[in-house]
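Okay, any thoughts on this one?
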Amino acid sequence: MEASQRRGHQVTGAAPDLFSQVTGLHGDRDGNLTALAGKTWDVAVDISGYVPRIVRESANLLNHSVSRHAFISSISAYQNFSTPNMNEDASLGELSDRTTEDIEPYYGPLNAASERVVQEVFLQRAYYPPRIDCRPL
């Protein structure tokens, strides 16, 4: 956020107490997204999408409010690591039960399914930075 601010961007976020000059919004991704309604941004950056149903709710709400949507994903989204020198085109994991929201055992496939939701909703406006190892603590 600070790098964006140094470049002159106005930043909106959920933790304004951690960053100076951030417009703070408070909500709950699983049921109370009203803080996002009626606003527009150039870019949305999703750093905490784990459950496809919840990612879809926020993506649908933001679909006509942002020009681009960046979804921060995890290397856990890959199906496996058996191919040396994998790149972003490697196969993503699949859920055998598409209704599960049990993050602990299905983190990787849920993350992959969340990526697919973002792609479906935002089409060419979806952006995926390189996947990193970012399992929840």
